[in-house]
Specification:
It contains twelve helices and 16 strands. The protein is α+β, with helices and mostly antiparallel strands. The chain has two domains: 196 residues, no CATH class; 157 residues, 2-Layer Sandwich (Methyltransferase, Cobalt-precorrin-4 Transmethylase, Domain 2), CATH 3.30.950.30. Strand 14 and strand 15 form a beta hairpin.
Length: 364
């Protein structure tokens, strides 16, 4: 774990204590719990709580998937917080998880467990304090008859080592070598839907790329001091470009340089309502791109530095998407950190190459 680092764009440790308990129960039973995905690179993005410079780090393994599992295990096995987090980053600290030597069950500490020698704190089970000799001592206390002592001691010993054996669990590990844009694309495809949303506060520090763009506003024109519907097309062409390429994230309320300006004026145009803002945006998508593309677009709001921003996550569509502009339909793709409009010939060639018969939305 000391050689693993966590990128700033990860959401952080969000597991509940119940999820940690379920993880440990599955590991003890030998059930599969998930995969680990690492990105091996000598040019990582911004990292969480890195105490040394990237130049000193050399080649590092950046955790892309499995961070919740690794963090939970590190905390319970060592009793410490992993180096890429601080104590304040751990919202639901699982270190009060206990293990029953008799039943093999897990439970968080309750007053009724006080003084019961069968309940051991999981952290202690992995330390030198969990001496095997204690199994015999506890068996002598719990046995009703002398001939039960050895059987109970063996039962306690087996359950203890069943827990300790989780350190030998063969978790599937995949190490990739890729560019940053490719890693972002992998993250968006690989992650389960609830886990793959990047925190906007982390994304704003990454800079615009093929899969990330910032827009200051949706429709409020700060130069004119009024609503300007022409600004709609700036947002829509980015969404269309994401739909036609590899997907991506658009953050509205952020300057091109990553400075957060927020949506205060934009929200005033929709009655200071986030729902109204979202409805306005999705109506534009329906009218100018097509309602059938709505399932590929998800919106949410976050607060950065006390300012509200809107995050629009767009997946690659299963068919070409066009934006109905002021005069004609327009076809856009992402090229580097820009949305490029293609002429008719280039658009036809791109579509033929990208949406072959029977091809799904992942390009395969």
């Amino acid at each position: 774990m000391q050689d693993l680092v966590l990128p700033a764009f990860q959401r952080g440790y969000i597991w509940s204590k119940e999820q940690v308990k379920e993880l440990m129960g599955s590991l003890v039973k030998g059930y599969p719990v998930g995969n680990l995905l690492f990105w091996r690179t000598d040019n990582p993005p911004t990292l969480k709580n890195l105490q040394r410079g990237v130049e000193e780090s050399g080649v590092v393994d950046v955790i892309i998937d499995g961070e919740q599992i690794l963090t939970s295990l590190f905390i319970l096995v060592t009793g410490e917080i992993p180096p890429y987090y601080t104590e304040q980053d751990i919202g639901a600290d699982p270190r009060d998880l206990y293990y029953n030597l008799e039943t093999g069950n897990f439970r968080y500490y309750q007053e009724s467990m006080k003084g019961n020698p069968l309940w051991w704190q999981v952290v202690d089970c992995f330390s030198q304090r969990a001496e095997v000799a204690k199994s015999l001592e506890i068996a002598k206390q719990q046995a009703k008859h002398t001939d039960e002592v050895s059987l109970l001691a063996e039962q306690y010993h087996d359950n203890l080592y069943r827990l300790r054996y989780v350190l030998e669990a063969d978790l599937p590990v995949l190490v990739i070598h890729a560019t940053f844009d490719e890693v972002i694309d992998i993250f968006q495809r690989f992650m389960p839907e609830p886990d793959r949303e990047f925190m906007a506060a982390d994304l704003t520090g990454l800079g615009e790329s093929e899969t990330l763009e910032f827009k200051r506003t949706l429709q409020w024109d700060p130069w004119r001091g009024e609503v300007n519907q022409e600004l709609h097309f700036q947002t829509l062409k980015t969404i269309v470009a994401f739909l036609n390429t590899r997907g991506g994230t658009l953050i509205i309320g952020v300057e091109d340089n990553g400075s957060v300006c927020g949506l205060e004026q934009d929200l005033k145009t929709t009655g200071n309502s986030q729902d109204g803002f979202q409805k306005t945006l999705m109506n534009l998508v329906s009218d100018r791109i097509g309602a059938r593309f709505a399932p590929f677009i998800k919106t949410r709001f976050e607060t950065i530095e006390g300012k509200v921003v809107c995050i629009v996550d767009a997946s690659r569509a299963q068919e070409p998407a066009y934006m109905r502009g002021p005069r004609v339909k327009e076809f856009y793709i992402r090229l580097g950190n820009t949305s490029r409009k293609l002429d008719i010939e280039d658009a036809v060639n791109y579509i033929q190459a990208s949406w072959k018969r029977g091809q799904g939305n992942d390009g395969r």
